[in-house]
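Practice set, problem 2.
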Amino acid sequence: MLAQPDRLRRKRDFALLSQKGRVVYAQEFTLRFRPSETTKIGFVASTKVFKRANKRNRVKRRMRAALRDLQTNWPEKLDLMFMIKANVLDVDFAVLKQSILHAFEKIPAALALPPTPRKNIKAKRKTSVVYKKDV
């Protein structure tokens, strides 16, 4: 399990990553990230993709285990949000770790690009947090 200081836990942090984070795509997940003071990691396994709670928990445990093995390769001073896709349960564990490493290698190039906000954020939803534009 990831140590508590290494986890993203607040709704505001996830919303900020969705709106102001940069993105790297992989076959098993979408990685959103933004610079921060320390490295923190969070996971999103939606009920739309994984209907049952035991599957949502299983994919998050699987991702945490892979990241624990790769802890020496974590990018420094970034908040990371893994948006997990449906095929992560079918993929071999070694392939999953290789995919995470490949996504980490793409991060420096993606940092040069402007932030990519999610397109389907609904401002009227109770769960979404809307921030004022930076002036």
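Problem 2, part (b): a different protein.
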Amino acid sequence: MIDSHAHIYLKQFDEDRDEVVGRALDNGITRILMPNVDHETIEIMFEAEMKYPESCMAMMGLHPCSVDRHFERALYEVESWLGSREFVAIGEIGTDLYWDRTYWGQQQEAFKIQMAWGAERDLPVVIHCRESIDETIELAESLQLSAYKGVFHCFTGTLEQARKITGMGFHLGIGGVATFKNGNLDEVLKEIPLDRILLETDSPYLAPVPHRGKRNEPAFVRLVAEKIAGVRTVGLDEVIAETTQNCQRLFGIK
């Protein structure tokens, strides 16, 4: 299995990061893909990648919650890093209207710029869209989609939204929310082809049942796979095999 989205470099793991990575390996997680947030997370993300080179792979991008009136300065640093070494993806990027719309214009501009970088470098984009799925779909539709590939991470939307996203060629990142009673993702998991689905945790956030409310970690991605298998009435091995292949194809990893 591959956890396609985990922030295991954050301080929530400082006391037991070795054990967390060990539990992931024990549960069959061969790769942990780490999205960047902003300039404050770059070095600690690199440290995790260097310490666990067989497991952890870094992305590079500017998270929408870190976009403000000075976002061009932050994007300059992201672009500089993209030109200096290899990354598995550009991310995480996107939009976020959970708090307010203060920097909505800047978020849209940062999103378009980073999407263009993905196309130029033939890298997948990892898209965040909290409380802004429709707006992000509309933004993506306004771009030359044949040049883009990636995933709408932590998908929590409707079947109609899922079909629009996959119809554009993107994948859906499915995590712990799928296991919540109020997650409302069963219909999506039944109807969307398995070859459009990636497993993720978004660790340390959004832990699946029965760990809801606690710190999430990559080992729990197995619980997400079990949920998908149950909803689709297929074997767990089938879900694991296909979602792993999806990740390998999208991110160009083994």
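Answer key, part (b): The chain has nine helices and eight strands. The mean pLDDT is 97.
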